[in-house]
Amino acid sequence: MSQTAAAEKPNVNPKLATVEKVLSVHHYTDRLFKFRCTRPQSFRFRSGEFVMIGLLQDDGKPLLRAYSVASPSWDEELEFFSIKVPDGPLTSKLQKIQPGDDILLGKKPTGTLVHDALTPGKRLYMFSTGTGFAPFASVIRDPETYEKFDEVIVTHTCRQVNELAYSVEMVEGLINDPLIGEMVEGKLRHYTTCTREEHPTKGRITDLIESGKMFEDLGVPPLDPATDRAMICGSMEMIKDTAALLDKAGLTEGSNAKPAEYVIEKAFAG
Ligand code: A2P
Question: Which residues form the FAD-binding FR-type domain (predicted)?
Fold first, then answer.
């Protein structure tokens, strides 16, 4: 970046954020889009973590919100999956970004949807709704996931079928990926459900767990704390309801400080 460009951004504290370049933008629906941006060499994170990202406002002040990094920790670029809220302070502007635009990237990634917060197990579930799939887009592209688990099941529930496009495209891409394809083969399973449109599997993931249909569809035994680990990401209500079902099955919630059988993180939006 030229010194002139840096001089135009006097309000970005270099201790808190760096200025990165948008590399590509893809809109899936009128509510969802993804974008990729440059990653500074100094930016280190664990797959599944979130970071503050944002834009400079017209008055020169930064506006930052928490976003899960959707790319894995080995990727040279960073990827984010975002909702578009028409009157959202950040997403109303963020949805208009174009390749070449500046974006602010916080310096302190953190989060609990990481392998370090789970005790060893055989089967990893990742339960997501809407943009809650974002951290799992990172975790399912990380080789560590397949080193640690024999079976990796990522569920994604959306209101409409077209909102599943990002995760469907990602999982298909992974299976055909020359680098990761061999590693995910026979391990990675994708379970998509829709609540407000016709789809082969209809309904909330919580209802599908409770009725046993999810286990039946996947051909796996019911949740078992001896073998199963889980990560949950979605709205507060979705997390609460899903966590209650895991609690009932005997799994306990973990954290970075105290790893256990499942971890939660709210899907960020704004
Ligand atoms: P539903 O259509 O029945 O509300 P949202 O876009 O509102 O975040 O929702 C994303 C998906 O999460 C929707 O399919 C929605 O189902 C589902 N969902 C919302 N609340 C819950 C909950 N408490 N438990 C499980 N799934 C939920």
Answer: 12-116
First to last CA, the chain: 29
What's the pLDDT tens digit per position in 239-256?
A: 999 999 999 999 999 999
Q: Using CA of residue 104, residue 109, residue 113, residue 114, what is the dihedral sign?
A: positive
Q: Ligand 1 pocket: which residues have CB below 6 Å?
A: 129-130, 157-159, 195-196, 204-206, 234-235, 237-238, 241
Q: Does domain 115-264 have CATH number 3.40.640.10?
A: no
Residues of the chain with CATH 3.40.50.80: 115-264
Is residue 218 classed exposed, middle or buried when 0-12, 13-18 and 19+ CB atoms within 10 A define those classes? middle
CA distance 241 to 238: 5
Give pTM, 2 decimals: 0.94
- How far is ligand 1, taken at its centre, from the CA of residue 10, in Å? 41
pLDDT tens, position by position, 200-231: 999 999 999 999 999 999 999 999 999 999 99
CB 106 within 8 A of CB 52: yes
Q: Which atom of ligand 1 is least distant from the CA of 234?
A: 8
CA distance 93 to 177: 33
> What CATH code is assigned to 3-106?
2.40.30.10
